[in-house]
Design a protein that fits this description.
The complex is a heterodimer of chains A (118) and B (113).
Chain A: E1 5-7, E2 10-13, E3 19-24, E4 31-37, E5 44-50, E6 53-56, E7 65-68, E8 75-79, E9 88-95, E10 108-109, E11 113-117
Parallel strand pairs in A: 2-11
Antiparallel strand pairs in A: 1-3, 3-8, 4-5, 4-9, 5-6, 7-8, 9-10, 9-11
Chain B: E1 4-5, E2 10-14, E3 19-21, E4 24-25, E5 32-38, E6 44-50, E7 56-58, E8 64-68, E9 73-78, E10 87-94, E11 102-103, E12 107-112
Parallel strand pairs in B: 2-12
Antiparallel strand pairs in B: 1-4, 3-9, 5-6, 5-10, 7-8, 8-9, 10-11, 10-12
The chains are: A mainly beta (118), B mainly beta (113).
Chain lengths: 118, 113
């Protein structure tokens, strides 16, 4: 009964490089959420995706950040031209149903990817 | 600005002691409230959640939380902690979006034998 998988667990990039973070939701889950935890801060919502659709990206920086959840394969959070301020832990969560539809649903979290920008 | 505050960053208790972890939020309007726990080396797990109804919510492993609307608080309690409760505890608030959780910084709990 695999949970939410994220890879890599640790990622080191130099300034200006691209970072790709992957998230495989739990089996049967079609809703994915990305969160960012900056040093000494709590997790903050970034983006909510369903298969092939971005539902809400209000928490995601407008520049350099993008997210997708294709019909096949994992969800990808992509950060272009990384800067030191992007160093953080990025968590992915998934749920079975739309939170909007069913408040009895739950978000299940992955272990996170720790991004370090040198 | 909307925020979630957890008052205690580090708590150390002896086994069998009672636990109360504070959580306050500064959202207006309807909110949904959560407590998550992260055991060492594990993922975040949901302890309990409040959407509506009885403000005293019971969760897993003997935890409960009380929503006090007038105080904008959602404190977590357990009458008698065990060594296995050693973990980091996070309060989270959703301003009625249904999905966009906003977490506090967390409280690290260490239970000593």
């Amino acid at each position: 009964n695999a949970g939410v998988m994220q890879n890599p667990r640790h990622l080191v990039r130099r300034r200006g490089q691209e970072a790709r973070l992957r998230c495989s939701p739990m089996k049967g889950h079609s809703h994915v959420y990305w969160y960012r935890q900056l040093p000494e801060e709590g997790l903050k919502f970034m983006v909510y995706l369903q298969k092939e659709n971005i539902i809400d990206e209000s928490g995601m920086p407008k520049e350099r950040f993008s997210a997708e959840f294709p019909k096949e394969g994992p969800s990808i959070l992509r950060i272009q031209q990384v800067v030191r301020g992007d160093s953080a832990a990025y968590f992915c969560a998934s749920s079975q149903n739309s939170f909007l539809v069913s408040f009895t649903d739950t978000q299940y979290f992955g272990p996170g990817t720790r991004l370090t920008v040198l | 600005a909307q925020s979630v505050s957890q008052h205690n960053h580090h708590v150390i208790l002896s086994e069998a002691a009672s636990l109360e972890l504070g959580c306050n939020y500064s959202y207006g309007g309807t909110v949904n409230l959560f407590w998550y726990v992260q055991y060492p080396g594990q993922h975040l797990q949901l302890l309990l959640k409040y959407f509506s109804g009885d403000p005293l919510v019971k969760g897993i492993k003997g935890f409960e939380a009380e929503f006090i609307k007038s105080k904008f608080s959602f404190n977590l309690r357990k009458p008698s902690v065990q060594w296995s409760d050693t973990a980091e505890y996070f309060c989270a608030v959703d301003s009625n979006s249904g999905y966009a959780l906003n977490f506090g910084k967390g409280t690290s709990l260490l239970v000593t034998p």
